[in-house]
Amino acid sequence: MSPTPASEARINDPAAYLADVGKRARAAAGALARAGTEAKNRALAAIAEDIDRRREELIAANRLDLEAGAAKGLDAALLDRLELTPGRIDGMTEGLRQIAALPDPVGSISGLNYRPSGIQVGRMRVPLGVIGIIYESRPNVTADAAGLCLKSGNASVLRGGSEAFASNQAIAVSLRHGLAAAELPTDGVQVLATTDRAAVGAMIANPEAIDVIIPRGGKGLIERISREARVPVIKHLDGVCHVYIDDQADAEKAFAIALNAKTQRYGTCNTMETLLIAAGVAPAILPRLGAAFAAEGVELRGCPATRDILADCAAATEADWAAEYLAPILAVRVVPDLDGAIEHIARYGSSHTDAIVTEDYSRARRFLREVDSSSVMVNASTRFADGFEYGLGAEIGISTDKFHARGPVGLEGLTSEKFIVLGDGQIRG
Predict the structure, then answer these.
(1) With a threshold of 0.85, does the pTM exceed it?
(2) 373 φ/ψ angles, rounded to the nearest 5 degrees
(3) CA–CA separation, 302 vs 292, rounded Å?
(4) Sign of the CA dihedral with 148 first, then 386, 375, and 109 last
(5) How far apart, in Å, are the Cα atoms of 254 and each of 21, 251, 380?
(6) Using CA atoms, how far apart are residues 208 and 195, in angstroms rounded to an integer?
(7) Per-residue pLDDT tens for 67-109?
């Protein structure tokens, strides 16, 4: 069955509307936490089938958003992110089926050990409860987020961007149909039916109804939510990612990794934004890299030592070292050695993803141990910092926090652990 639609008057009162949504989500969370893997997978398959069947309706709704966005003057990049092409709809359905194929983390037990008293103590994975997700632009996030929350046994409250309102509401119909087909509560996934910005404020100030908030979007949105939320937040603000080329690096590996880390895709949070290179190898490696980046249209901004080697390189400012460009711009700095690279990353990095290129095992181990980021890599491109590449399946985002999840947040990151104790009549003396 579909949920009872909220009245227009209630929707126009964000606090009352969110209180109602939260109450229904909390009630549904218990049923989803108890749901078996088969039922959850059946719902995911049914959602995918419904999206596939209703693709013309989704494209028609998306066209309304695209037309409204063009009329408001959204730039080409935003309109591209907003568009639901046939291929992106295929991606949504395939993503849901992939989530269904992943192992269910809920109920898994680890670390079960006997204690001297005879009891066994272990830990069991359990859902977080109700997850609120606030995101911008891309309507396919609606299906991805709903699918991950559902498989991990959580109810979800989804607030997409106003620019994708019609698209998200069309996808919400398929979410309800799929849950109903599996005889799961349709309130288990609720897509907010309002574009009122006050709804975000009401959402992040409601710990009685929502257990955790996950923001996905621009830095301004995430900063606001982190500052104002009364609900725990899983977030990352910036992806200021580094590749350090050590003086013991293989030159071919260094060239391929640095080029890929920057140019494979510019607008992602795991794209390299600063290249660090040891002074001992900079004169040999930088000219070739500089030519390759120029051929790709990448603007380089470098320190004085870099500009001595690359005459056409612009001067870097202090702000460049902490910049997340999300564009074909790269900061380049020559550092004395590994210590200089680690010091630079500690000062300017965002704890997202950092990589070293070296053939020296001891230096690689030092880098892994001392660089305090959510992903630290040896001889690999930063672009691998992704839930799918890590074998997690889809991801809800990448967290640079140290609690509760860190790095790509997949199904396991949407659960918590509780201690379980198995006994046979033991009492404590």
Answers:
(1) no
(2) -125, 165
(3) 16
(4) positive
(5) 51, 5, 9
(6) 23
(7) 999 999 998 878 988 999 999 999 999 999 999 999 999 999 9
